[in-house]
Amino acid sequence: MNPALGWLVALATCYPWLLAADLMGDLTAGWHLVVFLSGAVLVTPFLRLRTWQAVLLAGCVGLAYEARRPIPPGAFSLGLMVLCVVAISWRDRLRSKPTWLAPATLNMLACAMALPASLPVTGTWEWSQWTWALPVQVLMAGLTAAILHRPIAAFQSRLLERSGLAEIRES
To answer: Is there a contact between 37 and 107 (Cβ–Cβ < 8 Å)?
Structure first.
């Protein structure tokens, strides 16, 4: 496989988890809860992709999330790309931390960016509701990422290894 197309293989490993999160989010919509995995599915590919590939992957994952949500086009995608650059610059720390900490943190930060981005478009919630809803959503995103990281990472690692993408070791 051409290493330049690694981001496309990584996107294919992210998509089933994003679809499952969307379907679960439809089930929890009655309680105003979103099942959020957009940040957690990026951790394993970030360890295997070059910076420009990871930014492209983050942009595509952000656009996939925006497609079904009332978010201004590109708002979450751009934020996820900036978060990607920060995460890639600390690639060694992503490897050295406990296995659940990096995906939970990245997912919580991505969730904290996504939900306020939808506020101007929806206009259905008032600030009094956001004072309790945003922290609950962010904590739920971190808990979801911590619980589901092992199966996500195992699935993605296996497919990325089979496609020929090795982990990048940069100093």
So the answer is: yes
